[in-house]
Design goal:
The complex is a heterodimer.
Chain A lengths: L4 H17 L6 H9 L3 E11 L7 E10 L3 E8 L3 E6 L2 E8 L2 E5 L3 H16 L9 E6 L5 E6 L2 H4 L4 E6 L6 E9 L2 E7 L3 E2 L13
Antiparallel strand pairs in A: 1-2, 1-11, 1-12, 2-3, 3-4, 4-5, 5-6, 7-8, 8-9, 9-10, 10-11
Chain B lengths: L2 H10 L3 H17 L13 H9 L7 E10 L5 E11 L4 E8 L4 E8 L1 E7 L6 H15 L5 E7 L5 E6 L5 E6 L5 E6 L5 E10 L5 E8 L6 E11 L10
Antiparallel strand pairs in B: 1-2, 1-12, 2-3, 3-4, 4-5, 6-7, 7-8, 8-9, 9-10, 10-11, 11-12
The chains are: A alpha+beta, B alpha+beta.
Chain lengths: 207, 240
């Protein structure tokens, strides 16, 4: 019989606190330091779009790739196939239609370029130097970063962005973009591979 | 949607290849002409034609999700996702258009009046928003106005002709069993917009719909069905 039944819980609590204190997301400096070690990211993701007019979320599947300094590939595989590429400041999007890939040349591609640069900044751990959003770090397990638009024009479209950090240093678990109380987009990453060699062509070419 | 049509479609599928070509050629021919003459049809009765024309549109509330490929006036191409809530008996349409990444470009509701909840350029232009909503109404709702004639075109397609208070004429072409089309003409009788529906599924819902605008600004939309859900008339989404 354990004569001190609470001691186990006490020990566990101390260990948990230690784990928390030695986490990688206690402050901006630490996040920046850990993120600097990330040279590449590859992860499948599930996107869930929630809106008041939908009974259940609209689910999309895809894959995400990042390579320092600023190369991104944001690819959707279902329900439609689309690839957004950012490499050396150039943004391109391809759509799969009629059995072949076609380049998207529409105007909203420009705004996607801004979004992709934003994501690239997050992956570098540069949250507190962001010109568009103010960042608040919420310690905990998992730690979260809340980004709130600085400008009213942006806040009309996005109320806030919630980034949930993984236990693994430099890794993001999910991104939730809250447009208003009824509308949000959740991107959940899984099987995240860090610092695996990625071919440069992945960010410049089609599959 | 009309169940008999769906059953007939099943037996028709094996032979549909040549008929699809025939339909397309006929539609192209029709597109090049101005308002065609309607001949009284010898085959099905006018009541049958009217019933057939009505069967192409949802009889009650529905929610559809489509991928939409757009060919824009400058010949650029884009793909978006579209969610539409329609309740034809009440004349209500709610449309949301968003990027594949989930960013909402346009959110508007039409119920007697057009209310735009959210819009980014170019959807924030009220004229453009009205055009988009008119396209959605043309695809998912029976034509506005009164039925002014039924019969057949020169090519033998049964047709229902509607005219609204603005003088727009809409011909619903009831092709046999698997395809249908709407040709809309302006008040001068020139073809302004055309809708073609293909591959109706077991519920009678087209899996592919193409809309083309033949007057400036010229553009084309190709809608591929991702989801269709029949709603009950007391669904709270219809009323908020």
């Amino acid at each position: 019989m354990n004569r001190h039944p609470h001691s186990k819980w006490f020990s566990f609590a101390v260990l948990a606190c230690c784990a928390f204190l030695t986490g990688w997301a206690d402050n901006w400096e630490q996040i920046g330091r850990e993120s600097a070690n990330v040279r590449s990211v590859a992860a499948p993701f599930t996107q869930k779009k929630q809106m008041k007019i939908l009974t259940k979320p609209l689910v999309s599947e895809g894959q995400f790739f990042f390579q320092t300094p600023d190369s991104l590939r944001w690819e959707y595989t279902a329900p439609v196939r689309s690839i957004l590429l950012m490499h050396q400041g150039r943004v391109k999007r391809y759509l799969f239609t009629g059995g072949s890939w076609v380049e998207d040349t529409s105007a909203h591609l420009q705004s996607m370029g801004i979004v992709m640069q934003e994501i690239s900044q997050w992956l570098h751990g540069r949250f507190d130097q962001n010109q568009s959003f103010t960042a608040t770090l919420i310690n905990g397990s998992p730690a979260r970063i809340i980004l709130t638009p600085r400008e009213k024009s942006l806040s009309r479209m996005i109320q806030r962005i919630e980034l949930t950090l993984s236990q693994r240093p430099g890794v993001m678990k999910s991104i939730r973009i809250v447009e208003n109380e009824n509308t949000s987009t959740l991107l959940e990453f899984r099987d995240v591979q860090i610092n695996q060699p990625l071919s440069a062509s992945l960010f410049q070419d089609l599959p | 949607m009309n169940k008999n049509f769906c059953q007939a479609e099943h037996g028709f599928k094996r032979r549909r290849g040549p008929f699809i070509w025939l339909l397309m050629i006929s539609l192209i021919f029709t597109a090049c002409s101005s308002l065609p003459e309607i001949k009284s049809s010898g085959l099905p009765g006018n009541a049958d034609i009217r019933e057939r024309c009505g069967s192409f549109f949802p009889a009650g509330p529905y929610q559809f999700t489509h991928s939409i490929e757009a060919r824009l006036p400058d010949e650029s191409r884009s793909m978006v996702l579209g969610i539409v809530l329609v309740d034809p008996p009440r004349g209500m349409i709610h449309s949301v258009i968003m990027t594949v990444e989930g960013f909402i470009l346009f959110d508007a509701r039409y119920h007697r009046l057009l209310t735009v909840n959210q819009a980014v350029a170019p959807f924030d232009d009220p004229e453009f928003a009205e055009k988009i909503m008119a396209d959605i109404k043309l695809i998912f709702s029976p034509p506005a106005g009164r039925l002014i004639g039924t019969g057949a075109l020169d090519n033998g397609f049964p047709v229902c002709r509607y005219r609204d208070e603005k003088g727009l004429t809409s011909d619903v072409l009831a092709n046999r069993d698997f395809g249908w089309a709407i040709n809309q003409y302006d008040s001068s009788g020139h073809l302004s917009r055309q809708v073609r529906a293909y591959s109706r599924n077991a519920e009678g819902i087209p899996e592919r719909i193409e809309l083309s605008r033949h007057q400036s600004p010229r553009y084309g939309l190709k809608l591929m069905l991702l989801q269709a859900e029949r709603l009950s008339s007391d669904d709270k989404r219809l009323n908020y």
